[in-house]
Amino acid sequence: MLLVCPACRHVDEAGLQLCTLDLHGAERVCAGCGVAFPVQDGICVIGRDPAALIAFAERPETLETVAVYQRSTRGPLQDWLRETVPSGALELGGGLGVRTDTVLLDQNLAMLRASRNGLRVCADLLDPPFAPESFEAVVLANVLDSVGDPVLAFQQAIALIAPGGVLIVSCAFAFRGEITSEDRWFTSEQLARGFGAVDAGCLHVASMGALEWPLQVTERLTHVHRCDALVFLKR
Hints:
CATH architecture: 3-Layer(aba) Sandwich
CATH class: Alpha Beta
CATH superfamily: Vaccinia Virus protein VP39
Helix content: 10-25%
Largest sheet: 11 strands, mixed
Number of strands: 13
Order of helices and strands: EEEEEEHHHEEHEEHEHEE
Strand order of the largest sheet: 3-4-5-6-9-8-7-10-11-13-12
Strand content: 25-35%
CATH topology: Rossmann fold
């Protein structure tokens, strides 16, 4: 898996400049700027403060979130994603992952540790450590309403897809003001237009309507979200 350094990625007069992260012992080290990122349990931790990401994974509430997702593997939305997501896709903010043969990126290191994916990266999906057009398919499953900048998240996903590839999206519209400011909340119609991406050349090729996404909080309590499920094609 080719990883690039977000610390020294930049655009100059020659275009986009990228440096790879090479494995050296228990670290991934940038071949350009020399910044080192730790590798834990086979998971590369890439961020401005890797120690904070590692510490967050040990918090009781973080571990409880993992337990909820481990109890919530079945449902109409989960089944549709398993049928739709292809092998080798990149799952951004993917939690435990839709399937085990994808590249899984999430900021929750505890969630990644609990997943069975062989290719896992702990990083910010708003600044993903991959080169543009690296994947034939990218997945944003129930993540756009859980980030500070949903439009940027969508744009980053599109940028990572090779021409002719697909973006698979689901969204529960479960916004929280402490994560996403209200001026950045969006509607089903805005999502279907890809925040302008459809007008810029992407095609909205499929919509499954609202699929139920059950989250089993405890043995006796299950929250059920109704999620829009869509597929976009990058031309």
